[in-house]
Design brief:
six-stranded parallel sheet; 357 residues; binds adenosine-5-diphosphoribose; seven-stranded mixed sheet; Quinone Oxidoreductase, Chain A, domain 1; ER; binds zinc ion; Rossmann fold; zinc; S-(Hydroxymethyl)glutathione dehydrogenase / alcohol dehydrogenase; single chain; alpha/beta
């Protein structure tokens, strides 16, 4: 089958012919019908996040189960599923506390799952490698969804939407009437914008370095778009009684934008870091300002969600029309066009590209 593979830091991803094993006991084979290109994939291409190579990219996808290994009980062939890049073990201390996003097992075991045409072991992004015609994954990594749910919406539920909606509702608990700023308006940030608006937040200030994001942000529910520059915290203060926002969401994954989000937040407010940044990118915060500002700085991993519970709930919201994912999708392509989506993302253009392999 064909998969989008990157062979080293900074190298352009290319479509390669690769081979996957048959599903072992407890595993399933899924034909991918739609996969989103997420910044975390780009981070493994450009070296922001360390990864083993050759690496099949992609971790935000949906498809149809075509084969099940021995002992699989969760799904049957023909079922539509969303892929989960952090299936919890349900046995560890965190799972026992009902915090499966912090599961000690850390998702699908990071072992190579197939071979390249030359016979090299093929690594797969976050245990999935979903920018491909097929994946073979543990049954815990698939979540059944109704067959009426369009595949492109289903795909986005698996990362950007679960992460963004969860950050607003579960991690931060945004309440009606609270003020929000969202820094970084890709698939994740636009999901945060939409969820904040749906929660009744006002204003919802949407911030990006690229002014082309203004239209997308307003379509997703932002009350105003602001350009990210040195005047940002002043601009945010002017719109929030000189105080700063109740909630800031950082959806870029950079120290300087975490710092900008922090500065835009009021005393006693909360900064939720949603972006995944680099190991050596530090955020300067003085001891005095931490004390005096009384702010909370926290992160949101996978939206503090339980995917097995929250993906089906989000699927119902899409089907009943209360969750509209159309503003997130700006491009559609096939596997051969997927590499270009990485270039667009690196330039800060558009939001999600959905790949139909
Ligand atoms: N200030 C404001 N916005 C910025 C800045 C900055 N200094 N630098 C980049 N951005 C914007 C980009 O212009 C882009 O619109 O951040 C946005 C990031 O969007 P995407 O690249 O589409 O990323 P996305 O997939 O939404 O992921 C965002 O969440 O899951 C993590 O690893 C992921 O860290 C990434 C983040
Ligand atoms: Zn992702």
């Amino acid at each position: 089958m064909r998969a989008l593979v990157v062979r080293g830091v900074g190298e352009p991803p290319r479509v390669e012919e690769v081979e996957l094993p048959a599903p072992a006991p407890g595993e399933v084979r899924v034909t991918v019908r739609a996969a989103g290109v997420c910044h975390s994939d780009l981070s493994m291409v450009n070296g922001t996040v360390a990864a083993p190579y050759p690496l099949a990219l992609g971790h935000e996808a949906a498809g149809v189960v075509t084969e099940v290994g021995a002992g699989v009980t969760r799904v049957a062939s023909g079922e539509h599923v969303v892929l989960n890049w952090a299936p919890p073990c349900r046995r560890c201390w965190y799972c026992g506390r009902d915090e499966p996003w912090l599961c000690e097992q850390g998702g699908v075991p990071a072992v190579p799952r197939g071979r390249t045409a030359a016979g090299e072991p093929l690594h797969v992004t976050l245990g999935l490698g979903a920018l491909a015609e097929e994946v073979v994954v543990p049954e815990a990594a698939v979540i059944p969804v109704p067959a009426e749910l369009p595949f492109e919406a289903a795909a986005l539920l698996g990362c950007a939407v679960l992460t963004g909606v969860g950050a607003v509702r579960r991690t931060a608990g945004v309440a009606r009437g609270e003020s929000v700023v969202v820094v970084g308006l890709g698939g994740v940030g636009l999901s945060v914008v939409g969820a904040a608006r749906a929660a009744g937040a006002d204003p919802v200030l949407a911030v990006d370095v690229s002014s082309t994001k203004a239209k997308l942000a307003l379509a997703a529910g932002a009350t105003e778009f602001l350009l990210s520059d040195d005047t940002l915290s002043r601009a945010v203060r002017e719109r929030t009684g000189r105080r700063g926002v109740d909630h800031a969401f950082e959806c870029v994954g950079r120290g300087d934008t975490i710092r900008a989000a922090w500065r835009a937040t009021r005393r006693g407010g909360t900064v939720t870091v949603v972006g995944m940044g680099a190991k050596d990118d530090v955020v300067p915060l003085s001891a005095l300002e931490i004390f005096h500002s009384a702010r909370t700085l926290r992160s949101s991993v996978y939206g503090s969600s339980d995917p097995d519970r929250d993906v089906p709930a989000l699927a119902r919201s899409v089907l009943d029309g209360t969750l509209d994912l159309a503003p997130l999708i700006t491009d559609r392509t096939d596997l051969d066009g997927a590499a270009a989506a990485f270039d667009r993302m690196a330039r800060g253009e558009g939001a999600r590209t959905v790949v139909v392999p």
